[in-house]
Fold this sequence. Notes:
- The longest helix is centred in the N-terminal third of the chain and has 14 residues, at 115-128.
- By secondary structure, this protein is an alpha/beta fold.
- The chain has helices spanning 3-11, 115-128, 146-155, 173-178, 188-191, 197-200, 205-208, 229-237, 252-255, 258-268, 288-293, 296-309, 317-324, 349-354, 374-378, and strands at 18-20, 25-26, 46-48, 65-71, 74-79, 84-85, 91-92, 104-110, 135-142, 164-169, 214-218, 222-224, 242-244, 246-251, 277-279, 283-287, 329-331, 338-339, 357-359, 389-394, 398-403, 407-408, 414-415.
- Helix 2 packs across helix 3 (146-155) and helix 12 (296-309) crosses helix 13.
- Helix 2 (115-128) links the parallel strand 8 (104-110) and strand 9 (135-142).
- A seven-stranded mixed beta sheet has the order 10-9-8-11-16-13-17.
Amino acid sequence: xxxxxxxxxxxxxxxxxxxxxxxxxxxxxxxxxxxxxxxxxxxxxxxxxxxxxxxxxxxxxxxxxxxxxxxxxxxxxxxxxxxxxxxxxxxxxxxxxxxxxxxxxxxxxxxxxxxxxxxxxxxxxxxxxxxxxxxxxxxxxxxxxxxxxxxxxxxxxxxxxxxxxxxxxxxxxxxxxxxxxxxxxxxxxxxxxxxxxxxxxxxxxxxxxxxxxxxxxxxxxxxxxxxxxxxxxxxxxxxxxxxxxxxxxxxxxxxxxxxxxxxxxxxxxxxxxxxxxxxxxxxxxxxxxxxxxxxxxxxxxxxxxxxxxxxxxxxxxxxxxxxxxxxxxxxxxxxxxxxxxxxxxxxxxxxxxxxxxxxxxxxxxxxxxxxxxxxxxxxxxxxxxxxxxxxxxxxxxxxxxxxxxxxxxxxxxxxxxx
Length: 418
């Protein structure tokens, strides 16, 4: 073949970046310092396409890094300070920063139905953080599902470590600590699996994290569209039990019957007003220290047991949160929980664009085939397996990357040389 034909063949071959006059097409090269001259013929030898491969996104870099071009056909992922590249091709922090108030703690709890949701929320918080090194994610998961969660995080470059920590719940631990089995009387096909241990695990946070004084809780069906630091700063300055976004509908009177009102009055010696606003418990800031001081756990157990004896409501954790936090929560800006994306097909585009946080409350989660507003969620999802393979497996056997031909590594991060 002539030079023109070889060049044409290379340009039309996926990932071809160079060729030699022996007719070999190449998709990877050593750095220029390692090139060897093997012929003195002026037209024979190695030809490299002078292309900016970073701009073509041939190199999918891990979070907190960018693709840097060093020379023609020679590029690599470079971590943004203070992050550094680990041997696993992940950007990590060189050391823990433990200054009072410096770390931002984010709590999540997931089960196997929300694995991709976990990837989306963690990735979105990191991406928009002004200081991502301050973030610490604490993920509560059932012991039997820990392997699946670890695998899915590895696939997407969010491997558990000092910044993302998994906290397993043993079988029966939830019921033992809460004194009753979770009860939900709504149809699962209408509202999702509200009886999941991942949903009720929020009531265990003060015990599971005894060293934390404050934390932000996010449901795994959310994504953050701005820096979470202002949320944290408001929580740090607050002396209330919770921070949450209020909603006028449904009000307390819409959520609870007269029987619940009577139980509330008997328990606390006061009444709640029917028109009082409620809040959605999928996003909140919590003063864990105050929760422990006031022994809110005892109140959770009380309402769990009353509900188990005789149904008080149809939903899961939401009514209990409203009972135990009544009169003890402060208002968070409405942009921090724009919810209903899992059921409301008529949300305004301007409201979605300006939201600090989007919440797919409802059954139609964005990772499902019938999910709503999927593009808004997918924009925050990093490429699986460095964009060079697929994340395969299941909840029982775990997940791992299956790499396309020409790639290897636990995240398909290595290109195999010819």
